[in-house]
Amino acid sequence: MVKKLIINLFRLKLIRQMLKKKILNYRNIVLFIFFAFFFTDYHKYTENSQIADKSLKKEGIIFFPGNKLLEKLFVEVADEQKERQKGLMWRKTISFSEGILFVFNRERPLSFWMKNTYISLDIIYLNKSGRVVRIIANTTPLSEQTLKSEWPAKYALEVKGGFCQKFGISEGDLINFQIFESRTKI
After folding, report:
1. Helices 26-53 + 2-20 axis angle, to 10
2. Is residue 186 part of a domain?
3. How much is the average pLDDT of 16-26?
4. Cα(158)–Cα(140) distance, integer angstroms
5. Is residue 21, in this structure, part of any structural domain at all?
6. I need a labelling partner for 47 at 20 to 30 A (CA). Which of 67, 70, 89, 96 fits?
């Protein structure tokens, strides 16, 4: 907020200087202000729309031992703070064949929310052994309600809403995973 105020004050000062030197007339000022303010926030919208259209990267694989309906699932991995904060925000679609695995440094009660997330998800909380400690099914898109693990968890797996019901995943199940070493950081 303060940064925007400083930028806007700088723009006004620049405009006054240009008027004194008769570089600008009032018609050009109006155009200048329009484009300056438009392009200041434009990058936010283009960045978010690129995320919305982008498919998930295959950075790891989840295995479901003993599950006859589902053998494996490719996932994007969010193991850094910035990645965990973004998660599946801004995405418009996700298929049953993909998801995102959140990896935390230590086991502790976790919580998520659906802010800026346009799709319903199932959130599967896993302890350090890969055991499902809690499932929150069919979350409400764009909700700011806190979705808690209730039990200590080191991992959270976000998948398309209805995934757990469709593939028979339940609390107490064991889930294994492998994170690909070749994944690249952007």
Report:
1. 150
2. no
3. 64
4. 13
5. yes
6. 96
What's the CA gap between 171 and 163, in Å, rounded? 13
pTM of the prediction? 0.69
CA distance 13 to 116: 36
Dump the DSSP string for 110-143. Answer: EEE--TT--S-EEEEEE-TTSBEEEEE-SPPTT-
pLDDT single digits (tens) 76-121: 999 888 888 888 888 899 999 899 999 999 999 999 999 999 999 9
Displacement of CA 34 from its chain's centroid (Å): 31
Q: Which residue has the tokens 């935390």?
A: 104
Q: Tokens 């199940």 correspond to what residue?
A: 173
Determine the Cα–Cα distance for residues 174 and 11; give it in Å rounded to an integer. 58
Task: Residue 19: give the domain boundaries.
Answer: 2-53
Residues 6+ apart with CB under 8 A from 138: 120, 121, 122, 161, 162
List all residues 6 or more positions away from 114 whose beta carbon is below 8 Å from its beta carbon: 121, 139, 140, 141, 142, 143, 144, 145, 147
| Whether 136 and 92 share a structural domain | yes
What gap in Å lies between CA 157 and CA 172, rounded to an integer?
15
Based on its alpha-carbon atoms, the radius of gyration of the chain, rounded to whole angstroms, reads 23
The answer on 115 and 47 residing in a single domain is no
Helix then strand then coil, % of the chain, to nearest 5: 30, 30, 40
- Range with top average pLDDT, 39-48, 52-61, 77-86, 111-120: 111-120
